[in-house]
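Exercise 7. Predict the structure of Polysaccharide deacetylase from Bhargavaea ullalensis.
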Amino acid sequence: MKKFMLLSVFALFTAWVLVQSAGGKGPLVPVFRITAEPDVLVKGSQGAALTVDVSFGDSEIREWVAGLSEPYPLLFVDPDWLGRSPDIVELIVEKNIPVGLLGAEGERYEKDPKLLDEGIRSFESHFGRKPLYFRTADEQFPDELKKRLFEQEINALGSTRRWEGGKIPKEKSGEILSVPHHREHRISAEEIGRLQASRKFMTIEDVLFGMEVRQKSIP
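Solution. The predicted structure, encoded as tokens:
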């Protein structure tokens, strides 16, 4: 068993491949499949990571994105919102802010298997690559969806807890916080900034792996 675990860890680290980011410019980004079988990641090993689900917003989100500094939060972006926000997409690419694909409610993927492919194609059209991470709008992942994501080498990422504004939660080691920013249900950029100021957030890879991830630039 010990030998198997060591081999699994070795395989995980050797699964890292570098691909060029959107548009053939800028830094390289890692591609990897974290889990050994179809599963949903909801917690890491250290620190805290911030993720923001975005399906609505223009000027407020543009200003917030423009003001972000490293380590960046992971943005889960809705395909329709991407099509409505080319200038913000350009800014995200320019700053090399990590992005994942935000999907619909989990049960919709049981009724419409093509929905995932459509979302991936939309993401690729804007960023030139498949997403590394995927999250459904309600963080529900049917078994068949988890299987298809695993086959596509896309990581299903939920969260340790969703923050709905108000009182800042106490920090828990390895937590992945998610914050919604939708038309009907959204936390303002000002409130997200207040959460960001409450603790030292880390990249999602730092939280998941407990190691530093460095990205190389193309000469």
